[in-house]
Design a protein that fits this description.
single chain; alpha+beta; 54% helix
Length: 71
């Protein structure tokens, strides 16, 4: 999943809105995600999207684990 609504993330993680907002802002500051806020009908909608930076960081992490485990 490359894009997800903040409400779905909150529900899946069983996190509070305040805690999730803090964590998402940290990820945004690290350029791991982008946050898009808009309205859908009369309701606010926040979508979170992963960036190429996080994909590269995750791939590097997996490669480091493989090296560590001699795979």
């Amino acid at each position: 999943i490359r894009r997800q609504r903040q409400m779905c993330i909150r529900d899946r993680l069983n996190a509070t809105q305040g805690n999730l907002s803090v964590q998402l802002n940290k990820l945004k500051d690290a350029d791991y995600i982008s946050i898009e806020k808009r309205f859908e009908g009369n309701y606010p909608l926040t979508e979170v999207k992963i960036t190429p930076t996080v994909v590269q960081a995750f791939e590097a992490h997996v490669n480091n684990l493989k090296d560590y485990l001699h795979l």
